[in-house]
Design brief:
This protein has helices at 6-10, 32-50, 58-65, 69-75, 77-82, 86-110, 114-150. It is mainly α. Helix 2 runs parallel beside helix 6.
C-alpha cells in the first residue's frame, strides 16, 4: 500500500500551507497519511521561506522546530509497540535527518545565505523528505503484515 503517490512527491512545495488533518484509527495508533502530508507541507513552508516569504511572526519559525506528531509517536507508542521492526528504525533515522536538514536550511536563511539554503533544500532536504515518505510507507506495510499475521 503506497501512502504517497509519485505525483505528490513531485508536487512537493506546491500544496497549501495549512490543511486539516483527518484522524483515522489505525493499528499503528497514528494516521500515517496525515503525518506524511504534514511533512510535505513542512517542506513547502521551508521552500516559501527560502523564496522570500518570510513568516508573519517569530512563532511561525519556532513552530517549524517544534516536536511534530510523528516525532511524539516515534518516541512513545511507536517505539514501545513497533521498535523491533527494521522499518521503524529506518523511519526514525530518516525523520531525524529530515528535521536536522530543515533546521540547517532555516539557519542559512537567517544568516542570509539564500543560495546555499535553496541548494540544500532542493538537493539534500528534498531527498531526505523522499526517504521519510518511503520509510513511512514501509513501516505501514510492516505493521499491517504484523497485524494480519496476529489476527
Amino acid at each position: 500500500m503506497q501512502l504517497v503517490s509519485a505525483g505528490m512527491v513531485q508536487e512537493i512545495g506546491r500544496l497549501p500551507v495549512h490543511t486539516e488533518p483527518t484522524r483515522a484509527t489505525t493499528p499503528a495508533g497514528i494516521d500515517f497519511v496525515s503525518v506524511a502530508e504534514s511533512h510535505v507541507l513542512f517542506f513547502g513552508r521551508v521552500k516559501d521561506f527560502v523564496h522570500g516569504e518570510l513568516p508573519q511572526s517569530i512563532s511561525d519559525l519556532t513552530e517549524l522546530g517544534q516536536c511534530c506528531e510523528l516525532e511524539r509517536w516515534l518516541k512513545g507508542v511507536g517505539i514501545s509497540r513497533f521498535g523491533q521492526l527494521r522499518a521503524f528504525a529506518r523511519l526514525q533515522e530518516a525523520h531525524t535527518e529530515f528535521h536536522l536538514l530543515a533546521s540547517e536550511v532555516l539557519a542559512m536563511i537567517q544568516a542570509g545565505s539564500w543560495i546555499s539554503a535553496e541548494r540544500m533544500r532542493k538537493d539534500e532536504l528534498s531527498q531526505s523528505l523522499r526517504r521519510v515518505l518511503i520509510a513511512i510507507t514501509e513501516l505501514n506495510e510492516s505493521i499491517n503484515k504484523q497485524v494480519w499475521s496476529v489476527s
